[in-house]
């Protein structure tokens, strides 16, 4: 007696069952003798008919949320996102810094590029790329790694109810705490970078620029710009993380009809870039006066904040080089969040955005 299609389906697990392969497959015959085998024979079947696509495994195994491996992955993602993006926009940063230091010579973005091309050639646009790469890689490691740590830490202190209620404060406090540490790592390389980029002939790069800077300013001179750097980077990072988290949450809540966990990973990464770009524009506006101060102080030996304000003026402090910085920081921040979340997806972690950790845990309960 031949087995019907319905009988065959019941004998085979659903995830193995395929109508296209079963139509060509003979399972066997049932024997009337109780001592005989249920299946007499089964013809050879091509192996490809039984291939089951297994879920892809993360390259480093499953990473538990908020474990040491989780924070290590976030740190590595921060290195890639900040180091690579800042190095890529070195030409923009070079023109911006020179416009801030010498607005008479570098009157606009286009003329600034023209002056640099005429005086230093194409290679001149990447002057200072090594301290940029090293400095912002160190900063990115601390910025993203410690942000994830402090976000969880402050959420646990607040508890699920208050963490959900005051989530924006959690984002602000976590990002500010992380940036205090990150700027200590960045400051020496930032000082050398600005000096190399804004004083032609000072040094070719990090190798000769760092020893020359230390001989001129002393080792502590590398941290002369730390307070203005905090003044620039802490508001910048608070805006960068808090606005990004809020923008992404609002996009999924109001603009995207599909829940986040049902969206594809490429789509989620697109949302991360869009949210990061908008956050970057806000960051540039908030932190620009301090950015002008950092460039001025690192370029002029013995200069003070008062000297900078006197020379640049309040209007110049807020506006000089701002359009270029908006373009640069918007693109930079969007790319950073895209790279950071892409790395998290690569190692099997969810993309950034949503409620603080304590609130997420409460929702699970």
Automatic annotation (TrEMBL):
PROSITE patterns: SOLCAR. Solcar repeats lie at residues 69-153, 166-250, 267-346. Gene3D superfamilies: Mitochondrial carrier domain. Keywords: Membrane, Mitochondrion, Mitochondrion inner membrane, Repeat, Transit peptide, Transmembrane, Transmembrane helix, Transport. InterPro entries: MCP_dom_sf, MCP_transmembrane, SLC25A3/Pic2/Mir1-like. One of its GO terms (molecular function) is phosphate transmembrane transporter activity. One of its GO terms (biological process) is mitochondrial phosphate ion transmembrane transport. It is a multi-pass membrane protein. It holds the Pfam family Mito_carr. It is found in: Mitochondrion inner membrane. GO terms for cellular component: mitochondrial inner membrane. It comes from the Eukaryota. Belongs to the mitochondrial carrier (TC 2.A.29) family. PANTHER family: SOLUTE CARRIER FAMILY 25 (MITOCHONDRIAL CARRIER PHOSPHATE CARRIER), MEMBER 3, LIKE-RELATED-RELATED, SOLUTE CARRIER FAMILY 25 MEMBER 3. Transport of phosphate groups from the cytosol to the mitochondrial matrix. Mediates salt stress tolerance through an ATP-dependent pathway and via modulation of the gibberellin metabolism. This is Carrier protein. The lineage of its organism: Eukaryota, Viridiplantae, Streptophyta, Embryophyta, Tracheophyta.
